[in-house]
Amino acid sequence: MSPPRGAFIAFEGGEGAGKSTQARLLAEALRSRGLTVVTTREPGGTPGAEAIRSLLLAPPGEGWTPEAEALLFAAARADHVAHLIRPALARGEWVICDRFVDSSRAYQGGAGGLGDEAILALHGFGSGGIRPDMVILLEGDEGSLAARLAARDGSASDAIGGRPAAYHRAVAAAFAALAEGEPQAFAQIEAIGDPQIVHARVLEALAPILDRTGA
């Protein structure tokens, strides 16, 4: 008899939204309930995807075109899904991912101008169109998020985090549009404030999945 399928949760949002912190808090909460949890990130999570991450966040030469960037993200995701996410779910484990395909939809598809259809086509080909059971979209006002990012990175932002404010504004707008268009797939969470209060909001949003899985 095969084990029950685990649940797949992705944290999304712009730079400085607190995705890594909230992913860690959720993993700790689930482990305290006796669940086996895999935490991972995009781009990354497997040796191949981590190698591509380095190319994306510290690009050689003049950097990548939006098309090349989208292809690299899709390649990293295909490796990640095949070698980490699907096997963990098949074992009945929970997978918590810091970013997934909706980041590509918002960054390359939205702010990068490639469009949603192109990104979803790449995801369908590379990763079989797999979707999280729930996307937690962490949102906050632009000034607060910028202050968080500056405190975290100073002047050492990576190639994507260091893009102009107008780009990140477009990313935030794209994320909001995705969530509003697919309310069954997203939980929009106010990310500004005490991390434990934000964590409580996350748990509340995940209550239906926790109940369904008996977690």
What is this structure, in a nutshell?
This protein has helices at 19-32, 47-57, 66-90, 101-111, 116-127, 142-153, 165-181, 195-213, and strands spanning 8-12, 37-41, 94-98, 134-139, 186-190. Helix content is 56%, strand content 12%.
Q: What structural class do the secondary elements suggest?
A: alpha/beta
Low-confidence stretches are none
- Please tell me the total number of domains: 1
Name the CATH architecture.
3-Layer(aba) Sandwich
- List how many beta strands DSSP finds: 5
**Percent of sequence in beta strands:** 5-15%
Give the CA-based shape.
globular
- What topology, given as strand order, has the largest sheet? 2-3-1-4-5
Helices and strands, in order, run as: EHEHHEHHEHHEH
Kindly provide the name of the CATH class. Alpha Beta
- The average pLDDT score comes to 93
Walkthrough of the structure:
By secondary structure, this protein is an alpha/beta fold. It has one domain (8-213): Rossmann fold, CATH 3.40.50.300. Helix content is 56%, strand content 12%. It has helices spanning 19-32, 47-57, 66-90, 101-111, 116-127, 142-153, 165-181, 195-213; strands at 8-12, 37-41, 94-98, 134-139, 186-190. Strands 2-3-1-4-5 form a 5-stranded parallel β-sheet, with helices on both faces. Helix 3 packs across helix 5. The longest helix is centred in the middle third of the chain and has 25 residues, at 66-90. The chain is globular and about 50 Å long.
Keywords:
Rossmann fold, 5 strands, 5-stranded parallel sheet, alpha/beta, 8 helices, 56% helix, 215 residues, single chain, globular, 12% strand
